[in-house]
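Reminder to self: tokens first, then the designed residues, so the page reads top to bottom the way the pipeline ran.
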């Protein structure tokens, strides 16, 4: 049995309902940064509605263009970029909607964790499918959500191991 799956099964036997709910929130990308102000502080910006993929790591939700937080996919100038865009389109679904929680803004562009009812966190799903990599530049951000970054890094590592998506043609080491 895969060690990660075995560890999850072990954890499931020892978790209480509140712990399970907290883990689910973290894994779907809906957790609020610990850096954000507590009660009484500004709530995170959430944009929800009809969505389309502009490329493999950029979406338009109700007219607002956002990059998927901590996800980097090939540009459309690269043939793999079209495959990544198609994968993101598929995750959003036909006439799909997203709910995006803005993590930060850089150069007038929001970087957000986007979720839907079909797959949960679409950024994590892009990493799991091998159509994107973790954006290494976001790891230097002082507002990094380290728990979610760890989930993303494990998803990318697993896709590499399985030779999924972009990793299909990579040589074994």
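Designed residues (173 positions):
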């Amino acid at each position: 049995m895969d060690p990660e799956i075995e560890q999850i099964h072990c954890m499931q036997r020892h978790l209480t309902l509140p712990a399970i709910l907290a883990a689910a929130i973290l894994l779907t990308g809906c957790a609020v940064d610990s850096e954000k102000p507590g009660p009484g502080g500004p709530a995170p910006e959430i944009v929800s509605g009809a969505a389309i993929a502009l490329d493999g790591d950029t979406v338009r939700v109700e007219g607002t263009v956002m990059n998927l937080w901590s996800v980097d996919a090939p540009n459309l100038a690269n043939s793999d970029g079209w495959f990544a865009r198609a994968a993101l389109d598929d995750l959003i679904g036909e006439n799909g909607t997203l709910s995006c929680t803005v993590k930060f803004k850089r150069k007038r562009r929001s970087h957000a964790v986007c979720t839907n009812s079909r797959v949960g966190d679409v950024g994590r799903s892009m990493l799991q499918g091998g159509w994107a990599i973790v954006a290494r530049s976001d790891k230097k951000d002082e507002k990094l959500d380290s728990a979610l970054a760890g989930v993303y890094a494990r998803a990318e590592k697993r896709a590499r191991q399985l030779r999924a998506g972009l990793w299909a043609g990579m040589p074994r080491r």
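The first strand starts at residue 46 and ends at 53.
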